[in-house]
Each structure stands twice: as C-alpha cells, then as structure tokens.
Design a protein that fits this description.
About 30% of the residues lie in helices and about 30% in strands. It is of the alpha/beta class. The strands form three sheets. Strands 10-9-8-7-11-12-15 form a seven-stranded mixed beta sheet, with helices on both faces. Strand 4 and strand 5 form a beta hairpin. The termini are far apart.
Length: about 280
C-alpha cells in the first residue's frame, strides 16, 4: 500500500463522507479524542479532523463537505493518496471509570463522540450516548454508536426519529427521571456545547467539551486555535482539544470561528464553479 492511501471510502449522507487512510504508525499510537491534520495536495490548506477509529493500520476520519478543501477531499477515491496526513495530535481524552457517563454528540460531532463513548464504555463506565440530528434522514453511525455504549438515545429536531428535541432536552429528561450522571462529555456545534454546559452547571455535573477552533499547524506555534479557559489563554491543538466546559469562554470562541466565514464561502463557490466547468463565470 502507498503512503496515505485512501483504502476505504463510504458516503454516510449526501453531505458527509468517511475515509480510511493507510497510516500504520499513526494508527498504532492514536487514542480517543486525538486528531490529524491533512492536506489534499501540495497547494492545499491544512485542515484538522478528529480520528473516528484507528485499527489494522488504518485511520478513519469523517468529514462534512462544507468548504473548498473538504469538497476537494471528497473528490478523491479509493486508491488515491493524500499529500499529508499528520498525527496523532492533541491530548487524548482522559478515560477513567467514574460510574455513569453521558456523552452528547451533535450532528457530525457524533463521529467524534463515538470513539470517546467507546473508550469510556471499555473502561467500565455505564455510558448513555445521546446523538442529535436535524432529521432522521441524516442520522449517521447508529449501529456503531449502539455498540459503543450502554444505552443509545437518538434525538431529532423535527421528531422524525427518537426523542423529539435537542440532546440537552434528552439529557435533562434523564436527569429529571432520577439518573445520576458522574460526568458529561459534550461534542459538537459550539452552541450545543455552550448550552449543555449551562445545563450541567445547574446540576453540578463535571463536563468536558472537545473544542475545534480555527487551526493551522497543530503544534501551538501559529496561535490560531487559542481560546480562553478560566481566564487563561489556551491552545486547542496542544492543551486540548478537551477542556472543562464550565470554564470555556464560548462567546469568544464563537466570535473567532466566524472570522473567515466570507473567505470560506468564496472558496466553496470557487470550487463549485470549477466543478461546473466555469459555467457560472460565463
């Protein structure tokens, strides 16, 4: 097999794809919560993706086709090779047997929540995995999530499948039913994690969040992934990506993540124009 060869590729939804890349040295060291940084080609930008699984020399990542780089990544097929595939980066999730744990995943965040839930379950915890999606049609990894936890709870915003409502609503319903959680892990969109932390703070439940801010080098040198935790500047790539959710300044992170929205939109449009043979440019 060639270096960084895409050995397997799978479409999970029209917008979400999964690839398994041949990287045996990386796969041997990867742990739950860590990530890689890849480049599609020599001229490409560096993007971080959390490791969904690592076994048999293959590292699996899941991505959403939301910008120019992820769209270019999705054009690659089995047998194609990536320019760079670096990792594992970041600190692994701290996995202890603490008792009963809730792991919240929002949308694509379920791909990140999956290995965390699996590791916690293997450590002997009773794990409630709560996965949230907009609608039934975009539910991903349901079978894999079932195997990675004690109880799986699927939530949909529109009520088309499982619990009708957000993951925070399901978590509070479980708490109100008498379930005592010793720890909560929240992984997904920033607003979901923010409100999950507000909820768990009310019930005094320690909560860990996985942060994925703007990132370039993954070594703490560029400073792009900085965030404020308990009044101190931290770097998600080397100090995280896991942090105490009750101490994260989410409003700051949300504002910083919106910095390059205009550029990202233009990159996506440029890529779509190229796919269309330039028709949109006349």
């Amino acid at each position: 097999m060639k270096k960084y060869e895409i050995v397997k590729k799978k479409t999970l939804t029209p917008e979400i794809s999964q690839i398994s890349v041949y990287a045996p040295l990386l796969a041997a060291k990867a742990k739950a919560g860590q990530f890689i940084i890849l480049r599609v080609d020599e001229a490409g930008e560096r993007i971080p993706l959390t490791i969904s699984s690592a076994e048999d020399g293959l590292v699996t990542v899941i991505f959403q086709k939301i910008g120019g780089t992820t769209m270019a990544l999705d054009e690659l097929n089995e047998g194609d090779c990536l320019q760079d595939f670096v990792g594992p980066l970041g600190l692994p999730t701290e996995v202890d047997n603490v008792g009963r744990v809730a792991v919240l995943g929002g949308g694509l965040g379920c791909a990140i929540a999956l290995p965390v839930a699996r590791a916690l379950h293997q450590a002997g915890n009773q794990v409630d995995l709560i996965g949230g999606f907009r609608t039934r049609d975009i539910v991903i990894l349901e079978d894999e999530m079932k195997q990675a936890c004690t109880d799986l709870h699927i939530c949909t915003d529109d009520g088309s499948y499982g619990y009708h409502g957000f993951v925070t609503g399901k978590l509070e319903a479980l708490i109100n039913s008498g379930v005592k959680f010793d720890r909560v892990f929240a992984i997904g969109p920033l607003m979901m994690m923010k409100f999950a932390c507000k909820l768990t703070e009310k019930y005094n439940i320690p909560t860990t969040v996985s942060m994925n801010p703007i990132m370039i080098d993954g070594t703490g040198m560029c400073g792009c992934c900085r965030l404020t935790v308990d009044g101190e500047v931290k770097f998600a790539c080397v100090d995280g990506p896991d942090f105490d959710g009750h101490k994260v300044d989410f409003d700051e992170v949300i504002a910083r993540n919106a910095t390059y929205m205009e550029q990202e939109s233009k990159a996506r449009e440029k890529h779509l124009c190229r796919l269309g043979g330039g028709a949109m440019n006349g």
